[in-house]
């Protein structure tokens, strides 16, 4: 395959169902998908001259987004008014810079709306709110119709490019993922 790179050009976010009238494309100012960050524990063996580190898990997922204006429907989904998690689905247009082809990416996140932080109002400036998705228990990322990453807390699913990363562990522990 020839060298190329991909640039995100546009994004739409749905909070809850993908009802076409509920997309945030007109007010969405920023979307940050979660960092994928491993946790490492230091290890310095008694007979080794150098220390090393071993991966022992992953950091929690913390996606955020920012909307311009006020979104009264979304405000009522903040943790004070509900105890359920919601499904957030982001669709984006990514363009192959070599071929010009538009590619769909999709992120599916099951989480609670854990933070709503309003901007300070200034006349003549765009006012908005930053939102945080907390207590993430499910995450999927799709690129051009192919699942790239899938993780689910309750089923112990962890797939990368369709390959089950937890298969041995789940089999040994008798976890049906």
Description of the structure:
It contains two helices and eleven strands, in the order E-E-E-E-E-H-E-E-E-E-E-E-H. It is globular. 6% of the residues lie in helices and 51% in strands. It has helices spanning 72-75, 167-173, and strands at 6-15, 28-32, 38-43, 52-58, 64-68, 86-96, 102-118, 128-143, 146-152, 157-160, 163-164. Strands 1, 2, 5, 6, 7, 8, 9, 10 and 11 form a nine-stranded antiparallel beta sheet that branches. With 177 residues, it is mainly beta. The model has no long low-confidence stretch (mean pLDDT 92). Strand 8 (128-143) and strand 9 form a beta hairpin. The protein has a domain at 6-36 and 50-140: Hcp1-like (Pnp Oxidase, Chain A, Roll), CATH 2.30.110.20.
Helix content range: under 10%
CATH names the topology of the domain at 6-36 and 50-140 as Pnp Oxidase, Chain A
- CA-CA gap between termini: 34 Å
How do the helices and strands follow one another from N- to C-terminus? Answer: EEEEEHEEEEEEH
**Secondary structure tally: strands:** 11
Question: Would you tell me the structural class of the helices and strands?
Answer: mainly beta
CATH architecture of the domain at 6-36 and 50-140: Roll
Uncertain segments: none
Shape: globular
Radius of gyration: 20 Å
Main β sheet profile: 9 strands, antiparallel
Mean pLDDT score:
92
Number of helices: 2
